[in-house]
Amino acid sequence: MSVPFHLAAALDAGLKQAAATAGFDVALFVPEVRVAAPQHGDFQANGVLAYAKQTKQNPRAAAQALVAALPAELLALAEVEIAGPGFLNFTLRPVALEAWLANFGSATTLKTAAATLLAGQTWVVDYSSPNTAKQMHVGHLRSAVIGEAVARIAAFAGARVIRDNHIGDWGTSFGKIIWAYKHALTTDRAALEAALADTPLEEFERLYKVGNTTADADPAVLEASRAELVKLQSGDPENIAIWRRIGEVSVAAFQKIYDQLGIQFDHTLGESFYNDKVTAVYTELVTSGVAEESQGALVVFHDENPRYSRLAERPNPFIVRKADGAANYASTDLATILYRAEHFRADTALYVVDKRQGDHFEQLFLTAQKWFGRTGRPLLRLEHLGFGTVLGEDGRPLKTRNGENIKLKDLLAEAVERARRLVEEKSGELAEHERGAIAEIVGIGSVQYADLSQNRSSDYTFAWDKMISLEGNTAAYLLYAVARIHSIFRKLGASPGDAASETGASPLETPTELALARKLVQFADAQTQCTASLRPHVLCLYLYELAGAFSAFYTVEKVAVEDPAIRARRLRLCARTLLLLETGLGLLGLRTLVRM
Ligand code: ARG
User: Fold this and answer.
1) Which residues form the domain of 530?
2) What is this structure's pTM?
3) Which of 167, 472, 475, 575 lies 20 to 30 angstroms, CA to CA, from 371?
4) Does ligand 1 lie within 6 Å of residue 416's CB atom?
């Protein structure tokens, strides 16, 4: 039997078709098919109620008319029942479950089926995007981890994804660093050069702090560092060379973290890349009447929004060029949008950035909308995927004991160290190098997963013990489920990708077999929800429930039974659970294990 991968979408389409047959006003009918609570079958459609209300009909009568008109292909997939005031409950037929498991049984078939959601689209994902001359700290974790998961989810759904690390490499801070480099330590140039060779990023970071404090205290130094910045921006070779060096050591240090997190960018086009593209933007904004001069600066008001209107009590316009003529964060971000539209031909650009930058993105997108509109360009979809703050157990932003930012590299090292203790305890019998490799995957994966399993809009509390635990909705729990299924196959001398172990399978029968099969087919729905909402926690929750359904099945049912037909069907359930867990964890950016 041929069965669609995205079953909810197929039910939705079938219901719309039935609505047309039954003479509904189809423009008013939205089926609203959702995964149902288990006692209501597999899917529920609530749209009949809203439709009946709008058209002043009896909802049960409308539901009956709709059911009578359901197409045969839909009825072959599921049994339907009218419940309550007019809900439609769909229960998938076991043959449909079997067919789904048979048809989407390999990584390739899965990928092809999943890739229909965003086929033909180009998405830019702007994530991580740290500022150079500073180390990444825990505040940079979320953008990197969420951004990578979102990029993978979009690519799995069929989009051409461009991963763009929009680093902050062009701000006032460089004047201060260059000043400090030239002046602050001239008495011991050799020591400075040695430190720069040894721990370059730490040293540049220190120079920035020196430059900053000195400039704060001494207006002459502030002036001098401004002059260094102007020299840099006008192409002075010495300053450009220092600035390049800062960029290189920063990107090399970032790369070490990206390697640990499994991140590979397609482009690292920082703010500086857009420096020669901002003037054209100013001109267009002025000629199209989007921007105006105000107190020497070029600004954009959004009168339709009380917060950004010129009539606001304290007007707070979007400053796109500073009064001193310099470009700022807004100028480069506007030029970036144009580049993404024209050069990458993107349909969508996502900004995975701290939600505290919400105002910036709101004004940026409003400005882009007017600018593109008035210059006759189609506007791409722009979306700020904001996220909350990582908190310590005291409820305040996570810091070290003496109030400093926690370096991301130290945090990841500690995660691996702590995971190591768990592995020593659990799997002491494995060889030393194997335990090390497992600890790396469990440690890093735990940090990623703890972050991803929370709704990204919320703040979350960073708690080591909860994060690196085999209990609850954690990475270790899921990685362990994966390793356990691998060991089932190892013990039977079978291999999960091998169709031979599934031939001659008898139909699913027992309640836990069927319950697991039902959970497996919901993968497509979790994928749909997660792609639509761009919230990875939706996928985390699904994977956690899937692992739970597997565990319930495996506790009750023996896989290594004599009867080859029963054994084959149970092995198939094991293989599919493994495939979907590994695929899902891979979409979240986690590496998995065959042994733990
Ligand atoms: N560098 C910025 C920061 O650290 C984030 C940049 C985000 N991307 C963007 N296109 N504005 O806050």
Assistant:
1) 478-587
2) 0.96
3) 167
4) no
